[in-house]
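Input:
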Amino acid sequence: MTVDGGEPLTVQSAGAALRAGRVTSVELVTTLHAAADSLDETLGTWLARFDEQALAAAEEADAELARGIDRGPLHGIPVGVKDILATDEGPTTAQSLVLDSAWGVGGDGPVIRRLRAGGAVIMGKTTTMEFAIGRPDFSKPFPVPRNPWNTERWTGGSSSGTGNGVASGQILAGLGTDTAGSVRLPAAYNGITGHKPTFGLVPKSACVPLGMSYDHVGPMARSAWDCAAMLGVMAGADPSDRTTVDRPPEDHLAAIDRGLDGLRIGVIANDAIAEGSAESTMAVLAAAVDELTAGGAAVEPVDVPLYDEISIGAFLALQAESFAWHRSSLIDRWEDYGRPTRLTIAQGALINAGDLVQIERVRQVARVAVLELMEQRRLDLLVGPTTGHGAPPFSGAAPSATSIASLHTPAWNSTGFPALSIPMGFDPDHLPLGLQLIGRPFADGLVLAAGHGYQQRTSWHRQLPPHHR
Amino acid sequence: MPTNEDEHPGADLETVRALLEGAGLVPPEDEVERLAELYPGIRKSIDRFYAVDAGDEVMAAVFRADTTDGHGGRPGGAGGS
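Output:
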């Protein structure tokens, strides 16, 4: 959905239009329903649409605004929810034949409740990879999400439908989850913005787990401003998730306009970045870093300690953690899992107890070492590419474009630090590329402000794909 | 670092089958074979973690006896465990 001048509608611009009386939430929802009617068959965005409930919520949002009740930046804003998060409207599938239909019968978890309390309109459940892992699977009776920039390309996973839904204009924002990059990868591949919060900032209860100590629930939207608006509503401790940290409430929009001036930024220079990236990606990254510098940031190269270990460690440990959760179902229903999913999770059975202990010990050492590096060098942020390549094709991709080495996200699931992906340009096939900004624990506001500062200077996040309404 | 495959062709298949069966899994043979192909790489990735000096006190997870939150206390710092 665009506004005058062809600019994509955002949470920010829609909110302004709602408050100025230029549009109603019902009009937004109706328009986005039409977009979904037009695009879903091609893009595979939705597992379930809650059209009637969304219209009712939109009517209520409009009525409240008319009465002078304003619930904040998400009031009347249509959002999508990855289908591993439970909602009141219906069952959760995790895009799998295996998940017990009784899972999630308790309905909304804390994040969904907070979104509703903030006035957001839940449009439905978006596609994922089975159990938020694996690869596109054409063998199961679920939609295969496709990239709106090129439908022969993958969206990235596993928050696939939220990613292509925002990019194609079917929703203004949505929820993803991120265990090794599943918010940031589809954000990068679809040309939108996605934020993995600090571990412990956002409750992950009422969410089908993948790797319990690596899972994060995060916002996806057109811009860093929009993600900050979402995060401000989502964040905060909840007794249902004891890994959440009790901290004073924070308005993540309060300092969003601080700009880039004075920030000290380390550009990740480990060999793994260049080795896992195309030369063209590194050139786009260099231009993005120049833009940060032009905005007043001081940049310097840094080698992140134990980077390779915390990158691969996230994959290994999440396999062990996911195996712990899935073991019974794998024994009983092996064939009902998709082949990529069961072969990935089963690798957790090949990792022994001592291995997992050592991976987690190194994780603790690395987390402290990275923090010490940032303190010693007085770094506010680290940056690098989100992925080494644009979205890979469903078949025939070069191994370098689909290997784990091309994904530069999992290290930050190991440390738990906040990490944002924002569009930074295109590859030679005109597929979007993401710039990743990483901050210190609970400096989510600063990370998002830096992303916003970059987006105030660039227009990559406003580019529209061919499949867009 | 040498792997089972380097030392003894076929050993990985037997090892992987035994590990899967020990975990209660009896996949079709072609999938056991696929996991056996992956196993040397998995071992190689894991072995690098033993080359890191993690000291004597660092634990995999933070355990505290004085909490009631079901997982022994909040993870140390923000990183979790």
